[in-house]
């Protein structure tokens, strides 16, 4: 079975790793080696849609795959992302649509193959953004206005993150040296320790800048990216962190946040999730499945709408960026305890 290699990283000691079993048995692997296609496969995902509309939301995707593969494709809803990996390991799912951490676990624990990455607004990854209400301290230049194209909103950036008048790109890392300007006791709004953009990647960036986040700063706990930005806007914290560009979540209630809450640093890029396939599936089936899912969003206007409504994506891509998933595993390991 061809398998996309990931960097060898020690297994994470977090709850998502306490998953059952190994995927597949010897007979299933033999079937895969022989190229025999199963009569049906199961796809596990955590949908954005809830309640009565769920079956309706799943049906267009699974019907598209069933019709084009010539086998039954059943969609199964997982309670959370970790459950998709559990389903894969327990042979209850053959394909999973899941987040970056669960992709890493699926590959490392169950020898799954990473076949697709999620695309949101044209990107397969995003930076955590450092926001401040004190540009005099954290900006080496005057803030400039650039357009956050997803919302069509002009917002303020400094330290060369974006070019004045252009469409913002959100590409990091940029401006991380500004974190060295953090003084002892500075109030910094941080989200839950499980948040990649609101905690994990920013903490790593601050540590790399020589900041002891346990002793050098005053942590201001917040829940959600909107509250992280509001903390800076309302002067409850001098710095906060969130996804790119979380300011859009509050500009309706606080229009001045687009200019007064300044983005001054981008961390290294955080990977979107994607799709992984069990190593028991035949190579040619996985190849055809990959192509079909890669083409799905562009197959019709309805498919694009279904994909966005179902899993909040604009597309999938076969450019899997294995190194970003491996790095995400390293980041998770840092916060395992």
What is the averaged pLDDT score?
88
Order of helices and strands: HEHEHEHEEHEEEHEHEHEEHHEH
Relative strand content: 15-25%
At CATH's second level, what is the architecture of the largest domain?
3-Layer(aba) Sandwich
> SS-based structural class?
alpha/beta
Please give a handful of descriptors for the protein shown:
337 residues, alpha/beta, D-Maltodextrin-Binding Protein, domain 2, 2 domains, 6-stranded mixed β-sheet, 5-stranded mixed β-sheet, elongated, disordered N terminus
Summarize the structure.
By secondary structure, this protein is α/β, with parallel strands linked by helices.
Characterize the structure shown.
- The protein has 337 residues and is α/β, with parallel strands linked by helices.
- It folds into 2 domains: 15-121 and 272-334, Periplasmic binding protein-like II (D-Maltodextrin-Binding Protein, domain 2, 3-Layer(aba) Sandwich); 125-270, D-Maltodextrin-Binding Protein, domain 2 (3-Layer(aba) Sandwich).
- It is built from 11 helices and 13 strands.
- It has helices spanning 26-34, 54-69, 81-89, 100-110, 135-138, 196-208, 225-233, 257-260, 283-296, 301-311, 322-334; strands spanning 40-45, 72-77, 95-98, 113-119, 125-132, 144-148, 153-157, 186-190, 217-221, 239-243, 262-271, 274-277, 315-317.
- The strands form 3 sheets. A 6-stranded mixed beta sheet has the order 2-1-3-12-4-13, sandwiched between helices.
- Helix 2 (54-69) links the parallel strand 1 and strand 2.
- Helix 2 (54-69) crosses helix 10 (301-311) and helix 4 (100-110) packs across helix 11.
- It is elongated and about 65 Å long.
- The two termini are 34 Å apart.
- The relative contact order is 0.21.
- The model is unreliable at 1-33 (pLDDT under 50).
């Amino acid at each position: 079975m061809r398998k996309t290699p990931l960097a060898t990283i020690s297994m994470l000691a977090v709850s998502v790793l306490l998953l059952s079993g190994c995927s597949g048995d010897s007979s299933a692997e033999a079937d895969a080696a022989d190229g025999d296609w199963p009569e049906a496969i199961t796809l596990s995902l955590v949908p954005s849609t809830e309640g009565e509309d769920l079956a309706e939301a799943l049906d267009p995707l699974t019907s598209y795959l069933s019709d084009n593969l010539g086998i039954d494709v059943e969609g199964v809803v997982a309670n959370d992302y970790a459950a998709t990996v559990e389903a894969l390991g327990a042979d209850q799912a053959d394909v999973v649509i899941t987040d970056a951490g669960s992709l890493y676990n699926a590959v490392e624990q169950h020898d799954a193959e990473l076949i697709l990455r999620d695309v949101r607004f044209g990107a397969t990854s995003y930076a955590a953004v450092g926001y401040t209400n004190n540009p005099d301290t954290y900006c080496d230049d005057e803030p400039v206005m650039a357009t956050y194209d997803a919302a069509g909103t002009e917002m303020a950036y400094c330290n060369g993150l974006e070019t004045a008048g252009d469409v913002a790109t959100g590409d990091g890392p940029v401006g991380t040296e500004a974190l060295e300007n953090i003084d002892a006791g500075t109030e910094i709004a941080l989200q839950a320790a499980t948040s990649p953009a609101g905690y994990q990647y920013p903490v790593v960036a601050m540590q790399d800048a020589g900041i002891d986040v346990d002793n050098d700063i005053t942590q201001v706990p917040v829940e959600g990216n909107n509250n992280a930005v509001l903390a800076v806007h309302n002067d409850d914290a001098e710095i906060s962190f969130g996804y790119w560009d979380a300011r859009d979540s509050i500009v309706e209630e606080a229009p001045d946040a687009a200019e007064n809450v300044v983005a001054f640093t981008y961390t290294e890029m955080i990977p979107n999730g994607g799709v992984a396939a069990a190593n028991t599936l035949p190579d040619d089936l996985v190849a055809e499945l990959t192509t079909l899912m890669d083409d799905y969003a562009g197959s019709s206007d309805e498919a694009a709408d279904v994909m966005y409504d179902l899993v909040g994506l604009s597309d999938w891509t076969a450019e899997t960026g294995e190194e970003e998933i491996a790095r995400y595993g390293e980041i998770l390991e840092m916060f395992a305890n």
